[in-house]
Amino acid sequence: MPEILKITLLSIGSIVVIFALTKMMGNRQLSQMSMFDYIIGITIGSIAAEMATSLEDNFTQPLVAMVVYALFDICLSIVGSRFMKARRIIEGKPLVLLNNGELYKKNLKKAKIDVTEFLMQCRVNGYFDVSKIETAILEENGKISFLPKVSERPVKPADMQLNPEQDYMVANVILDGKIMERNLKHTGKDEKWLTQQIKGQGADYVEDVLLATCDRNNQVAVFLKTNKSYTKDIFV
Prior knowledge:
Layout: H1 3-25, H2 35-53, H3 60-82, H4 84-91, E1 95-99, E2 102-103, H5 105-110, H6 115-124, E3 133-138, E4 144-148, E5 171-175, E6 178-179, H7 181-187, H8 191-199, E7 209-214, E8 220-224
Antiparallel strand pairs: 1-2, 1-3, 3-4, 5-6, 5-7, 7-8
Helix pairs in contact: 1-2, 1-3, 2-3, 3-4
């Protein structure tokens, strides 16, 4: 068998195996991975790549290794879900980084996070002023959860005894200058109507629009393409 054909078949086989193992390990492997899940995923991918490029006749060894890694991760997941103490050992436990105006340097050091990175995570989560945060907790999966101070918490309709109308998902009708015909059809409108909507918001042509969305009330939001860039650096 020619080497190129063999590598092609092995690559397809490794992809199928990875797909099957990923389904066995669950969606958690794809989204909210723990550090151990992340390492297992990288290891399985590395073995799969070695399996695909192996020119030896014995490809069962990397295949067995992939299955063993996946089964071990599944077993740990089952044990962690049934026994809380085991879960603390396997996945770790939450770590308080900030509480009541006090930033814990030792916990930041333990989490391998410096102050600059912590501030970046605050901004990513919508907090540009750290003084508005009551508590910040590093979760087991490496993400940071933030609890705002009560005075900074957004007012909820329930606080004012209001019952607002339920929001719904919006449809992307233009992406990067191209009309999404299926999404536009879902709104019950046509391209002529959409063109009129974007012209009313400063776009002469569809190609001028980077993103346009339409809600269930046929309200269109348009974001134009621009060559401008924000160059002010105030975050270091």
